[in-house]
Structures
1.
Amino acid sequence: MARSSDTARTPQGVTSSGIDVLDRAASILFAFRRNDEPLTLTELSVRTGLYKSTLSRLAQALCHHQLLIRRDDGRFWIGSAAMHLSAVYEAGFDLRDILLPAMKELSAETGEAVSFHVRERDHRVCLYRIASRHSIRAEVQQGDTQPLERGAGGRVLLAFAGEPGEPYDTVRSRYVYLSMGERDRETSGISAPVFRVGQELVGALGIVGPSARMGMEEMERYRPRLLDFAARVTKALGGDPEPLLAAAAINAASERVDIGRREPQDGHPEASGQTQEN
């Protein structure tokens, strides 16, 4: 039997699960954004691509289950059941379950150590770490504390906590920081931020290695992949991965252009686009 044109429409902003009614309901819920005012039926129709007749029926069902509320002026907003589901999710949430698989995969891909730093007052703490497969490695252990104002992880934490001026303005625009010999003259690192719901900063995901093996050219090569992994973790934590993915795409394109123009200088490759080199 042919489906009606109303049923055949694919809602905007969702990936099809193959169950039309759930996809349409999900598109309504995901149409709301953090800084919105309550939305009219017309605004929801524009955002979802659904007919108003379909929207009206689904919105009534969602209101029945308290996933939506309808205000006195006829506009809609997220209902109290969403808060209940959020509380259930957080009660069973373990950051390690999301971070560690991604960190292990990134370490396996690069061969270098991968760390995750969080801010604790005026310093940073290595919360999780996956060791390098190499015998010569950067010796930073889980639980170690380090300064905020030196090294890739600390710079990223400061940048997305609102630290003014450079290099933090550049870090906020590129979503990444490269450091060579800044904290330790023998160590290099590259870090990117990870966010949760509301783009709240969770910590800094980074790749760390000896400078002799991980120079600027290697870090430039790792940069798009690090941003991809940071975006993946951010999405899993309920944050918006799009700024990180956009930065990864721009950086990848920039890398393809810049590496082609590099020429050796004093036996070392010229590095372009880095935020910091000591």
Note: The domain at 9-86 is CATH 1.10.10.10 (Arc Repressor Mutant, subunit A).
2.
Amino acid sequence: MDTRAPVDARAGALMVGLCFIWALQQIAIKAAAPDAPAVLQIGLRSALSALLVALVMWRTGQRPDWRGHGRAGALVGLLFGAEFWLLGEALHLTTASHAVVFLYTAPIFAAMGLHRWVPGERLHGVQWLGIALAFGGIAVAFARTPATGGATSLAGDALALAAGAAWGATTVAVRATGLSNAPATETLLYQLLGATVLLLAVAVLTGQAQLRPTPLALSSIAFQAVVVSFASYLAWFRLLRRYQAATLGVFSFLTPPLGVALGALLLGEPLERAFIQGAVLVLAGVVVVSGYPLWARRRRPR
């Protein structure tokens, strides 16, 4: 029996604020890219955030269980790093608006992976219809995206979609291993360490380690490290411990529309009709897949 509280007004307001922060993540990376390549930004922010999480664990007496969770931690660290590597490369080739929508297909990939690997996470027929709806939206959005040139490209959108798949795989890896019972701070630490090692290595090996310490670049990295990867993630985990996860998850679907709006407002990104149509279908499919368990529970007789 779930003893967590239903989402109240305070939690709802906090979730809206978190979604706004998560939507700004892609905007900040894209805006500062001329001064700091996206991969370098995310690698540096991951290193700073890992240090902050380690300090929190030290102050609260927590220690990572390297022996029990080391292999699983390495796996989720690799997947988390791959997600942001793909996202960083995508932001060089497409708009932040496109990137945030395709990144948030992650629940679709997670649901399919959990259906295969985690007992008790079987998908229902309605959810498969939601998956079909989401992939139909992806096809619509891709259909009129140019292969190269312009503000967006098919390659950039495909990389953002692959980042969403990597995020979904990270969720499956956490749920299917001993990390499902580990403290949230420990799991987050593994993810941040993996991203730090992978992304900084990629930045050096691919010639993307040049940082121009402009106010925009430094403020972007600081915002991502302190606000996004540290404070917002810890706030999210604390909400999950207190409130019903399914309802909180539905709130998180505000992030893509906010990202699209902020991309147009702050970066002047174009909003193509085909992309908007596809994005609506994608988000509708994600809501069906992720919201069905909540709907089904409410329909059960008490």
Note: The CA atoms of residues 132 and 285 lie 7 Å apart.
